[in-house]
Amino acid sequence: MGLELQSKGLPVGHKHQAATMPSPGARVVIRDAEWIVRRVDNASDGGWQLTCDGVSEVVRGRTGMFLTQLDKDIQVLDPAATELIPDVSPRFSSALLHIESHLRSRVPNDGRIYIGHRGAMDVVPYQLDPALQALKQHRQRILIADAVGLGKTLEAGILVSELIQRGRGARILVVTQKSMLTQFQKEFWNRFTIPLVRLDSVGLARVRRDIPSNHNPFYFYDKTIISIDTLKGDLEYRNYLENAWWDVIIIDETHNVADRGTNSQRSRLAKLLATRSDTLILLSATPHDGRARSFASLVNMLDPTAISDPDSYTADDFRDKGLVIRRFKKDIQSQVKSAFKEREVRCERHDASTQEELAYEALLSIPFTTGGKHEGGKRGELVRIGLQKSVFSSPAAALASAANRIGVLQSAGDVTPDVVREIEGLQQFMQCLEAITPKSYGKYQKLLKLLGDAQFGWSKSDTNDRLVIFSERIETLKFLYAQMIEDLRLPESAIALLHGGLSDTEQQGLVEEFGKSESKLRVLLCSDVASEGLNLHYLSHRLIHFDMPWSLMVFQQRNGRVDRYGQSQTPMIVYLITESQNAKIRGDMRILEILQTKDQQAYENIGDPSVFMNVYDSALEEQLTEAAMAEGMSADQFDATYQPKTDEGEDFLSMFMNAGEETQGEDAAKSSLDSIASVPSLYSSDYDFAKTALSVLSNGGGEIQWQPNDTSQRIILTAPLDLKVRMRQLPRELRPENDQFVLCSDPIQIQSEVVRCRQDENAWPKVHYLWPQHVVMEWMADRLRSSYRRHSAPVIRVSNQDAGQMTFLVAGTIPNRKGQPLVIHWLAGTFQNGKMIQVEEIGDYIGRIGLGKTPLANTGEAFDTTPMQKLLPTAIEAVRNEVIARRDAFDKQIKAQLDHQIAELKRLRGRQFEQLNIKLEKSEQIQSIKERRRAERTTEINTIFDDYQKWIEDTLTTERDPYLQVIAVVAGSKA
After folding, report:
1. pLDDT tens digits for 417-461?
2. Among candidates 606, 579, 574, 605, which has minimal Cα distance to 590?
3. Domain 117-326 carries which CATH code?
4. Residues of the chain with CATH 3.40.50.300
5. Which residues of 171-197 are buried (b: 16+ CB within 10 A; e: fewer)?
6. 604: number of Cβ within 10 Å
7. What are the residue ranges of CATH 2.30.30 in the chain?
8. How many whole angstroms separate alpha carbon 827 and alpha carbon 809?
9. Distance (Å, rounded) from C-alpha 617 to C-alpha 768?
10. How far apart are CA 68 and CA 368, in angstroms?
């Protein structure tokens, strides 16, 4: 049956049978050309779709897709019939590179870290934890909910890198905010050389121009990044979305797509995306809004079987699934003492001017109306507080709000006497606001004094010391823009506004400019659109709150722009606080100071400031602050009212925590580092491998032009034709000028280059990271794997192995039902005088004989391989038996997990039906409607659980026949 024919010694291979399929990594012959199978997917016609890379000369450098129902004459090459060829290259370099290229092609499919920690970054133990937690799962579904500034993008990059090396990351989709597209794209490329094609407004236009109109762009490009708003607003691309499948989907700032009970387009899109990939990574520092249903929607995106009742559940419903990880700065501070600087906080106080005091009095004297009538009490006060909020921002913002209020009142229809009095009061208020000139505006004058203070230390001429100023109101930002240009004598190019009214490319462009030393930009005036996710810390460590936030979560988000992982300077956070003689105004301002105190308390001791107000939503926190002022609550009462709830049972926040599952502090750091592993290698470094590979591949010819530099560990390479074909998958901004790559294997130099490139007009590094995941390294490895003719393997002779010994290096892969490599073994079968004596791991064998550690001598003379050829079928049979034995052990181990998961699914399905019955029993709807609801929900539940159970069975069930490939043969020789 199918691959069982391998053991029968067919001369070349056997024809593919419908009952089985070649697994990824298998070499096959299709249409008289040789291919390497890269992925196997279900096809709509009931067969399989094979995605293959060309190996033989005619198809080299090409990718082909084949349907097994159409191409029935598919030959899987029989390892027992592999032709063994003496390697005559100097020092057996061709064979060693061939072996190395195979060893680099795949890492073991286990729960350890093999490559992610090697990204161009400083290794910090806690950042490995999300990948370790996800790799314990059979499919990687995780919400990384670390606090602001801890590096969630890096954590995602580590996990994705591991999946790529396991053959489960070929197709990637990232969905984020429009202002974050370039930043996220750069982090993934600069740190991990993961190329994401940016589909912003410019990128979409480019895609429409570059590909046929009827092609799905999400299939044309394997790795893309797009904003959720673009997907939401573009019907064409939403249709493409529904007809595409990815290996990995990442949704950034995922709290924006949680179900808030409104069935928003964002939420519907996220639910759709959750079904379009095996791996789903959600990122958010604020992963819930305090409502059980909202957080349940995120958990159920990760695992639709996890929570049966989204309105009532506990952490036990999902904690053992490893779906969520959340840490705060205080939790990991001991690991990163050099990476996090303790922030310096300054509260700059100033007296309100006489003109401001008059404006406050005018505001408090306005007889606000609701429904055309003057009404005292809380309702009327809430109207005042809404206007007071703008006053606390700036006179410019208050003028706009007052004018808007007058417009609303005048357009309401029935202008009652009470409304007339309110309008008159508003007009008087506006006159007082207009009297506040910049010189009589105390907060602005305090800002100017601060910026000129030598102790504060900011200089507008220092290109490496940028300033970030936050305000909630765009009118305030516009005032600051115009006035600072005049008073600080700044050119217009030195100051810019970043707000939500800008297009995606405009927002991205400003953030890029702010991070470049050569840019003339010195001051960035930000609305709270910039408080979410953006890196503003590269050249800035000073942040000024021109107006105080009314939400603790906004404090956290704003401050996190400069106080974050990677900040090299001490973050300086400044609050401008107006002190009024008016008791009411002074009391309300004091409430905002209490918020600032609570934020600092959370920063130092708790981690998450949102536990104070316990609503986990910035808008709701603002409403509580407004209500406190409207009710006349004192600052002390406000402080006492909003304290962390520690005695009311299980705090909602505790659902995120992994207490009991993960160790803490130094033990956690140690265990994370202990999980780093490596694959066997014959070369001392990536540079050594690449240099040797290019020497052999070029072989004195002119096809490949390259130049090494041993001192700087750099290689300059001009892309040959087949590499240029691969480069089409790179974003245009990553394709090097004149197709000439500058590659460096030193991650420290790459980090320096990332910093340096911000000073260059070209915002992308000109030096690329030379490591296994770069497109050039993948191209080299593929070329080396196909360097010998079809269905052949090299033979080398070494002096540090007994003359009578022959060792067969064989790769054994067992796929699951989905064609994914589930069990991977690299084995060495050794014969002594014609008799098999042992089968061991290739890594153990390489270490034992020191292969690759010392130069080998090769006379270049061909030698007789007949003895090896005769032993090959026996070697294949022995290795096959070993792989099957290991598969059986794996099956035995996995069966317990499979049985447990199926039993758990049965229990969870039962809970879903219990919840359905409870809801229907409580419902007062007529019986026919309840029965219809029961039938619809029953179908939905059964579909979810049947699909999930089938996924588990297909993923964890191994195919019976392993795919074996002979990599090389090592024969002993006399010294």
Report:
1. 888 998 999 999 999 999 999 999 999 999 999 998 888 888 888
2. 579
3. 3.40.50.10810
4. 344-348+441-656
5. bbbbbbbbbbbbbbbbbbbbbbbbbbb
6. 12
7. 1-81
8. 6
9. 41
10. 75
Whether 468 shows a pLDDT value over 70: the answer reads: yes
Residue 963: per-residue pLDDT? 82
What type of residue is 452?
Answer: G
Residue with token string 């996995």: 894
Cα–Cα distance between 247 and 223 in angstroms, integer?
A: 10
Q: 242 to each of 308, 541, 719, how far by Cα in Å?
A: 26, 43, 36
Instruction: Please state which of the four CATH numbers 2.40.50.180, 3.40.50.300, 2.40.30.30, 3.30.565.10 is assigned to the domain occupying 344-348+441-656.
Output: 3.40.50.300
What's the gap between Cα 625 and its chain centre?
34
Residue 588 near residue 629, CB atoms below 8 Å = yes
Higher pLDDT, 661 or 626: 626
d(CA 183, CA 227): 12
Just give the CATH number of 1-81: 2.30.30
Quick one: tokens of 912? 């879903």
**Residue count of the chain:** 975
* Environment class of 973 (CB within 10 Å of its CB; exposed 0-12, middle 13-18, buried 19+): middle
- pLDDT, one tens digit per residue, over 842-899 is 999 999 999 988 888 888 888 889 999 999 999 999 999 999 998 888 888 888 877 8
Q: Give the tens place of pLDDT for each residue, 948-972.
A: 888 877 777 887 778 888 999 999 8
In whole angstroms, what separates CA 82 from the centre of its chain? 42
Specify the pTM: 0.76
Q: Which residue in 84, 80, 86 sits closest to 797, CA to CA?
A: 86
More confident residue, 903 or 438: 438
What is the reported pLDDT for 732?
84
Nearest to residue 818, comparing CAs of 958, 619, 675, 649?
A: 958
The encoded tokens of residue 257 equal: 């797509």
pLDDT digits (tens, 9 = 90+) for 5-15: 222 233 344 44
Give dist(CA 572, CA 584) in Å, integer: 30
739: region left, alpha or beta (phi > 0 left; psi from -120 to 50 alpha): left
Burial 368-386, CB ≥16 within 10 A → b, else e: bbeebebbeeeebbbbbbe
CA atoms within a 13 Å half-sphere pointing along the CA-CB vector of 667: 4
Please give the single-letter amino acid code of residue 296.
Answer: A
Average pLDDT, the chain: 83
Residues in Cβ contact with 725 at an 8 Å cutoff, skipping those fewer than 6 apart: 61, 62
**Cα angle at 886 between 881 and 891, to 5 degrees?**
120
CA separation (Å) from 800 to 740, 830, 846, 862, 971? 41, 14, 11, 20, 10
Q: CA 230 → CA 238, 864, 950, distances in Å?
A: 9, 64, 33
- Give CA torsion, residues 202, 204, 210, 211, to 10 deg: 180
Burial class of residue 594 in the structure, from the number of CB atoms within 10 Å of its CB (0-12 exposed, 13-18 middle, 19+ buried) = buried
**Cβ neighbour number for residue 104 with a 10 Å cutoff:** 22
Residue 571, token pair as written in the block: 């973050």
CATH 3.40.50.10810: which residues of the chain?
Answer: 117-326
How far is the C-alpha of 610 from the C-alpha of 294, rounded, in Å? 16
Strand, helix or coil at 851? coil
CB 560 within 8 A of CB 519: no
Looking at the DSSP assignment, which residues form a beta bridge with residue 144?
Answer: 283, 325
Query: Strands 172-176 and 197-198, how do they pair?
Result: unpaired
In 799-863, DSSP assigns E strands to 805-815, 821-832, 835-841
What confidence score (pLDDT) does residue 454 get? 85
pLDDT at residue 57 is higher than 70 = no
